[in-house]
Design goal:
The structure is a homodimer.
Chain A: E1 2-4, E2 14-18, H1 22-30, E3 37-42, E4 46-48, H2 53-57, E5 67-69, H3 70-73, E6 80-84, E7 86-91, E8 96-100, E9 110-113, E10 116-119, E11 123-125, H4 143-162, H5 166-172, E12 174-178, H6 182-197, E13 212-216, H7 228-240, E14 243-246, E15 251-255, E16 258-261, E17 264-267, E18 270-273, E19 277-279, E20 296-297, E21 310-312, E22 317-318, E23 320-321, E24 324-325, H8 330-348, E25 363-366, E26 372-375, E27 380-382, H9 384-397, H10 401-417, H11 429-438
Parallel strand pairs in A: 1-9, 2-3, 2-10, 3-6, 10-21, 12-13, 12-18, 13-14, 20-22
Antiparallel strand pairs in A: 4-5, 7-8, 8-9, 11-19, 15-16, 16-17, 23-24, 25-26, 26-27
Chain lengths: ~450, ~450
Amino acid sequence: MAITTGLAPESRPCVVVIGGGFGGVAAARALARAPVEVTLVDRRNHQLFQPLLYQVATGSLDSCDIAEPLRSLFRRQHNIDVILGDVDEIDPQARRIHVRGGNGAGEEPRTLVYDYLILATGGGQSYFGHDEYEQYAPGLKSLEDALEIRRRVLLAFELADRETNPEAKRELTTFVIVGAGPTGVELAGALADLAHRTPQSEFHHLDLQRARILLVEGGPHVLPAYPPHLSASAERQLRALGVEVRTGAIVSHVDERSVTIGEERIPARTVLWAAGVAASPLARQLGIPLDRHGRVEVSADLRAPGSSSVFVIGDLASLESRGVPVPGVAPAAMQEGRHAAKNIERLVAGRGTLPFRYWNKGTISTIGRRRAVADMGWVQLSGFMAWIAYLGVHLFYLVGIRRRLVVCIDWIWSYFSRTRSARVLTDTAEGERARAHHHQLPAVTGTSSR
Amino acid sequence: MAITTGLAPESRPCVVVIGGGFGGVAAARALARAPVEVTLVDRRNHQLFQPLLYQVATGSLDSCDIAEPLRSLFRRQHNIDVILGDVDEIDPQARRIHVRGGNGAGEEPRTLVYDYLILATGGGQSYFGHDEYEQYAPGLKSLEDALEIRRRVLLAFELADRETNPEAKRELTTFVIVGAGPTGVELAGALADLAHRTPQSEFHHLDLQRARILLVEGGPHVLPAYPPHLSASAERQLRALGVEVRTGAIVSHVDERSVTIGEERIPARTVLWAAGVAASPLARQLGIPLDRHGRVEVSADLRAPGSSSVFVIGDLASLESRGVPVPGVAPAAMQEGRHAAKNIERLVAGRGTLPFRYWNKGTISTIGRRRAVADMGWVQLSGFMAWIAYLGVHLFYLVGIRRRLVVCIDWIWSYFSRTRSARVLTDTAEGERARAHHHQLPAVTGTSSR
């Protein structure tokens, strides 16, 4: 087995970053001028702008608009090596990780030695012990998830159009979203828009105005992390869009053709899961106790407890700042990434680490095409003004001029034309796999239309 | 089994169009004001702008830019029903077709009765009796093909970057394109551009300047359908781009790691097939003799021989116009589609059919990022001027304002920035399937970057 240390042939310390999401990329960038060699390992070749995934799932944006190749992000950074691969082992004693992937080249699996490790692998969807729901109710964590959801929704429209049995038609046009956090709320709003605003003339045998969008939440309010009056406003805005909101409703069963809430079985061909985050299993490799969500309870300087060299950031880290838990959102991950980088730079210089402090810039969630709620701390908005704030913030965060231009055109276009730009179904092997569960459904890839 | 007749409850004649490509869409559109009910059946939900597929394959365009949902194309046409499904049987005696697909809804397969049938299913890739080559050398006929090619090329770069054995590195950076018709030439030029213009700073262990692009043609010239001096110019332009052109070279074997030309084995991990068209097998259902390419030798009015109700158009039809075979290109398919529609309108009105005449508007093929050859009949261009003509023609043909805008931005952007906009690898079930043949390669979907 080849043992390499990324780029560094000389004596500069090696920092390995696992995970190319918001946290990992921010950390790697912040190390650009540090006297270290950085290796960034990710299973994908791109960074994903996750907060806009729901727009890909509902056909407003194309996957291209919210993903950026890692190589291109780091084109101008000279102390970094980007590796496409899966990490399947961390050995914190020997300070080594084990990377698989790309074996097509007859390449051996390889071992990377690190002086400092930044673990930023985030989390996946949690089904609360019911992993069998996953096949019926996909989550929204990756581009593939978004394209799978888009495929299911568009195909449900097609099937409903040709279905003659009214009951089956109803089942096909019932969409249930489980979980009313930001993802669930944004997905429900966008789906309601997609269904209710599709031009009637496109389907001759189907009234999409009557499509039923159900948002199911176990807790007493939608958007539980927001102040109560914003949660209430969000719920009113959702109802105005035609979304049926059910709070205090516990899902007791999901299968291919229905979801059961308590005792009530609701026939629905499309169920989407936005209810929980499961920490990446890689944390278990550290050999330390994890919290009940599988996260690492890091110390104030973001290091894993008892470790001098392993930092954990983003959704995989659990910590408090100013007495409040740091939320699992992109800005927190980025701040932690930059802070971990700063602490590594200090350690390399022989200095002590500093504790992390989260600066909450506020949160915004959209509800459909021109509503939102925003809690910026110093100001709270809802409705159209909050939506304008949302637009500004998200354009600001998207990387690259071209991206901003295209997203902008897509949004302006769909605002005025009420059409969707990304509604192409393609038949890939994804379809093959789906067929096993879901009989004969072609898959959606990419993108498109006017 | 349900028997329906598309939309028409009354006595208006039913026209069924199978295939939503250039020919089928042109025919269905031309029937908008005819006193008939039209049903368009396609396996996909979108029309594909096939002449630009090579740009999706090489990461310049996103799949969205070259596909348009059929429902959205026909939004304003009231006498048409669009059906997503696979036709697996044609019964020309009973004037019925049998449509499968979308069985997820528990829906029965259905039978459509037609008064007139337009068969426009085109063709797929032909491996000249060596279908086993397909797994090693994908063709370029659909969005899925383009995304699969993109996946293989981008992944070859990734694998080559981390490969340390020089021979294996060479094998990974050798790209062979079989067939030097327009598709092969455009693919070779775009690949050379992609490889040779990727910023050196993106790969630390790889010199893509040295990537080898081989274009293999069995005949004596590239672009054999062009006049000899344009073929020669195309060959010179390809060489200037760094493409190795081999004419008179017969491929005798293809496997996972090489292609053999005559006796010479060339190690190459990526082989692409652009060498032949196989007519859609649906033609066999008509129960009439086909030509040696599996096409229907239609009569001058575009009807299948001996049939009063079946029209065949596009790549599936074989005929001469003014003593010359009509070529298998988009403008010919569109002209035939409109002509078949006109003849059906005449038949419905109790009049006779008219013979088809092909109007050759000329052909253009690009070679890389700013060269081309164009044969417009009255004028022949090569080099930069031909490329400008190509740009104009293709923007003109793309449907929809937004599409034109985005394609334009992408092109202008990549012209100036020399970067690619569509380079995201995603790991889908396509990857799963590919692993069987190709070990561990994540799949490319959609799209993107700056």
